[in-house]
Amino acid sequence: xxxxxxxxxxxxxxxxxxxxxxxxxxxxxxxxxxxxxxxxxxxxxxxxxxxxxxxxxxxxxxxxxxxxxxxxxxxxxxxxxxxxxxxxxxxxxxxxxxxxxxxxxxxxxxxxxxxxxxxxxxxxxxxxxxxxxxxxxxxxxxxxxxxxxxxxxxxxxxxxxxxxxxxxxxxxxxxxxxxxxxxxxxxxxxxxxxxxxxxxxxxxxxxxxxxxxxxxxxxxxxx
Length: 223
What we know:
The protein has 223 residues and is of the alpha+beta class.
């Protein structure tokens, strides 16, 4: 997952964006179009995640990103939305979560019942990445691209996994309204992830009440 903290005051999902965002166009890409933009997307990845001085966390390399993109493109239902002006400004991509619950493999403790129910009903969309080029309205742009993917897939819940050591990304997601629901570790991998969700609409948001946990401790409340 690739996101950078926005600037200024946070906005609620669905808020109107300032007029400065109007020139930015959102466009859904098919797999062929994504493949033709691989190098541009890799450039965006590098520019959107410059490591702050003193930050010990080192994000995956450009080549790691390209390898992961190739893998994700093969997943059923893969989708990408890009934001562009005179150049590529941002993108988000991901895929629907399967109803067999495999996305949640390695979740610490029992999966909250509300999330399990939404997963079984094929109402969850997984964000593999959100990348935004540094811009005065980067927070609003990130909200727009993620909202477009969720709307296109008629998803009730977005989800993503973030390395728990990647504090800037976690902070950005929290500021955009994402909820931290616990830790997850894949059996074959060394990385411990924070699992986050983004509810769509008041009804789904209400179902998430009591699930929020803070990074570094505690399990989800409620079920």
